[in-house]
Amino acid sequence: MSTIGTRGTLVEINLSALASNDAAALALRRRFSTAGTKVANLISSPGTGKTELVVRLCEEASRRGVRMAVLVGDCATDNDARRIATAAPHARQIVTDGLCHLEAAMVEAALEGWELEEIDLLVIENVGNLVCPSGFDLGENVKVALVSVTEGEDKPVKYPHLFSSAGLVVITKVDLAEACETDMEELHANVQAVNPAAPCLETSAKRGTGLAGLLVSLIGGEDVQGPLSVDSGRWG
Amino acid sequence: MHELSIARSVVDEVAAAAFARGFAWVSGVRLEVGSLCGVIDGALEFAFELAAAGTPLEGACLEIVRTPVRLWCPTCLKVVQPAEDAMFVCPDCGNSCGELVSGRELVICAFVGQVSAAAAAE
Q1: Which residue from A23, A186, A231, B9 lies 20 to 30 Å from B59 (Cα-Cα)?
Q2: Full-model pTM
Q3: CATH number of B1-67+103-122: 3.60.130.10, 1.10.246.10, 3.30.2320.50, 3.40.50.2300?
Q4: Are residues B87 and A157, on separate chains, in Cβ contact within 8 Å?
Q5: Between chain A and chain B, how many beta carbons pairs sit less than 8 Å apart?
Q6: Cβ A154 vs Cβ A190: under 8 Å
Q7: DSSP 8-state assignment for residue A206
Q8: B48 by DSSP, 3-state: which?
């Protein structure tokens, strides 16, 4: 390993390596808090079923009078935003042009023209990726890690960076558990192993299972924040 | 490849901090990286070299200091280091530990500032 040596002047600064993103996220968190908007940052691998879940969640929110908006990040195309727009009046795509995660400045730019006071719940569907997005604070109240029953029971322990930092874990596609011979107990145990504190919800977008509970978790006053994210995720 | 975003941010922050203190060049940066950040040293070093090109940090060396995962065990009432970074289990009593003491750090600890390019190249 290289060392920076002592030639020249050593200056200790002890500054976050992502100070600029952290500052942008803090500004967003203050805006969300002032407007009374709850914000969830959804992170999972591609194919977990985030978009379908978000569409169904929009419908659930609409039925319950919760005003929900969605930002969805992808490397390319606005396919997901067009899908979600069928269920939510406020849905926007963030195209990252290949970048593997969303950053706070992208969220800030994407919010332009929206009145946050008119939005009760903002769901940010991050770029499908289990490693990169977890370190970038978006000003959210809660970071949600999702895993589908089709991905294998050990996904949470294979990707602890995300699952250990989530305030809420959501298992998707539970309607397929039997067909996939998923051991649900083992999946829950693996979530528990890397994040003993986070609540873990089972959902099926196809059948509507767990949507009401998820909505309540995301908008409710109940603290669903895990103890592991020190800065991000507190209810504002 | 979030290492490139991290490297760019580090270069921006250090360049600003160096400029504010009157340094023209930076020859080294010390970065603390927690084991739970999902950062690969080699990828970060590579990205840092790219991000530093054409800035006052060009050619600067990056010293990565790894911080291990440490947990508070509510059963043993002490800070423990798990056998595996990812498994939040006390190595002594085997009970789960939810409270992270360290492991998620991503901090620019220090840099070495130079007044001129010649000094930085030494």
Answers
A1: A23
A2: 0.88
A3: 3.30.2320.50
A4: yes
A5: 148
A6: yes
A7: T
A8: helix
